[in-house]
Design goal:
Cytochrome Bc1 Complex, Chain D, domain 2, mainly alpha, binds heme C, 8 helices
Length: about 220
Amino acid sequence: MGPQRPRREQRTQRTKARGPLCILCILGVLCGLVSSLGCRQDMHDQPKFKPLAKNTFFADNRSARPQVTGTVARGQLREDAHLYTGKMGGAFVEVFPFPVTEDVLRSGRERYQIFCTPCHGQLGKGDGIIVQRGYRKPSSLHIDRLRNEKPGYFFDVITNGFGAMPDYAAQVPVKDRWAIAAYIRALQLSQNATLEDVPAEHRKDLAAPVPPPSAPGETRHQ
Ligand code: HEC
């Protein structure tokens, strides 16, 4: 029996010591639960500012901050005034900023037909479907004043809009705007061409009967 006593004593001591420890543990877990509930952050409620939200941290209360003066964001360096504004020394440029190849004209035609025909019509006569439904009618692109306008002018009208016409800077990238301007030049030439403009070997083709327009849905090969 003798050797058992100290063991029982030890056990009692251990139990005594474990009691307060366990209470501490439970308290700790409870505290943790309570505090974690208090700090709960749902994903839909994020500590960020929505665009143009108020922020009292800044004196002007705007959360959207202006760009730091003198900094240029990647891809926004617009040093080439000819390319980006269509103007040099305040005057509209007379030449295109890159060579007008057949590819440029083809992509210009495609972009023109997407963005401009709804109002200006396929041929630029100002008779697009939106105009037929009552929108302000633009001048034909074939009037003398516009035939004599410089390429930079057309780039500027697309970039900044003109009177009732909205600008297309957001929808049409810079190079596509120039391609459209080049296609307008081609349209102007096409609508004011004379027999002399047709190469001699192709003049006989003009007498050939015009093929009927293809049926809707049929692929047209050009
Ligand atoms: C929603 C209709 C609309 C669309 C789309 C549109 N325009 Fe226009 N555009 C107009 C109207 C209307 C005017 C005349 C504005 C006025 O006189 O207030 C005009 C005027 C112009 C002019 C003549 C400016 C002048 O000096 O008379 C040019 C050039 C032109 N647009 C080019 C374009 C090109 C290129 C596109 C395609 C990228 C385009 N427009 C798309 C409606 C449109």
